[in-house]
Amino acid sequence: MKIFTAKQIYAADQFTLEEQKISSDALMERASVQLFNWLHHRLQGTQVKIKLFCGIGNNGGDGLALARHLWEHGYDFEVLVVNYSDKRSEDFLTNLERLKDRKIWPNFINSDSKLPQVGSDDIIIDAIFGIGLNRSPDPWLERLMQHLNNSGAFVVAVDIPSGLFMDQSVKNPKAVVAANYVLSFQFPKLIFFLPETGIFVNQWEILNIELSEKYIEKTGTDFELIGKNEVLQYYIPREKFSHKGSYGHALILGGSYGKIGAVTLASKACITTGSGLVSSYVPQCGYFPLQSSVPEIMVITDKGEKEITEISFDIKPDVIGLGIGLGTAKTTQSAFSEFLNDVTYPMVIDADGINLLAGNKSLLKKLPPKTILTPHPGELKRLLGSWNDDFDKLQKAKDFSKKYDCILVLKEAHTIVIYKEKGYVNTTGNPGMATAGSGDVLTGVITSLIAQKYEPLKAAIFGVYLHGKAGDLMLQSSGYQALTASAIINGLGPAYMDLFSVQPTNSEVKNKEN
Fold this sequence. Notes:
By secondary structure, the chain is an alpha/beta fold. Helix content is 39%, strand content 16%.
């Protein structure tokens, strides 16, 4: 699913009006009907107080049109117009007149008005600001937003929580409405998935307002949202007369004294994801732990007892997953640098492999094209340097990817895969996966997919999805706190099975609960 910018959404609206020969008021009516249907389906006429806070632009117009539908169906509601400017959109004024024609008189909130009463049992419809906001709201609006946030009422935001910008991070977190639900027209917004802005979006859902399919299809975007439908296109089925050699030989390289568990997890995830053969290259202290805990794999040992000192092997793997538990000892640094001089295999680099690259940036030029790096936020900062906000971070990641022709997997609540100018936002995963070893499992999953002849970019996108889905499925029997990396591995089989389930998944249409 494409993620459009504010500029592209405005263009989609205009294209739709011209293509379908309708007015902007008619398009607003579509939006209001979808808003009403969503509410009505859940409330079914329940007499709860609904308070609509409407700005004076088109977002406010959506709220006013919604109020009319609530009136027609007998709901108990109050319209409060947040009067933050003397300028009003034409469609806002049109819908305001329609309310007045029905003897519905909104209350106007100005900078000198008392804060309105809002009960904890009320439903707030936030239609104050839309996607066009480009500066922080005035102080009196900040007080109003804080009042709404502190009310305890259930907040439904129209299209976007008021106070958020589409293309920049939040300047004043106190001047943002925190929404329980966001009803986003036609497209998700990138800000739903970034740490600094996503905290204001508990759950979201798409409302289809029938924007032009032609425009949507022909317009390229910088980011895409990845769900089941997207990754199913990548899936490579197995042939009846294939054998283990058909599905590649992966090498997992890493480990040091006390950190052999990382290699164990990565290796087990690699074989469980479907690599035909898996070998692990570890210091000698890792031989017995790996042979006894993962009997399906082969083990190659370095000359070093507690750390890797000289990377040398006779096999010809199809891909190398490198860095998990590796350590950063001087002898390991030297071995790593020497190894990169001649390496031509596709690689997935994580953990201490990334730290070694960050400590000696000249090594980055030695990486084969489309090497995959999987940093967590701390490791990413070592690679890129500091950033001002999430948007700056994404731009720096794109620049880094272009400079070194590498794929970055930015591990967050919503992991984003970056390759040059394009980003892929994952929809699976949950807070229980913030646990030791989860990243090692991801390295094994992506490495395995490359061994099975998935292109590196597709392997990264698909691997992140499978990893998150495995965690989601295992969460059902463990809860957040008890979810472990080993459990995520156990969920990889069910994650594959889920790809072909006819049951729709929530992640395709709405955000998971924070």
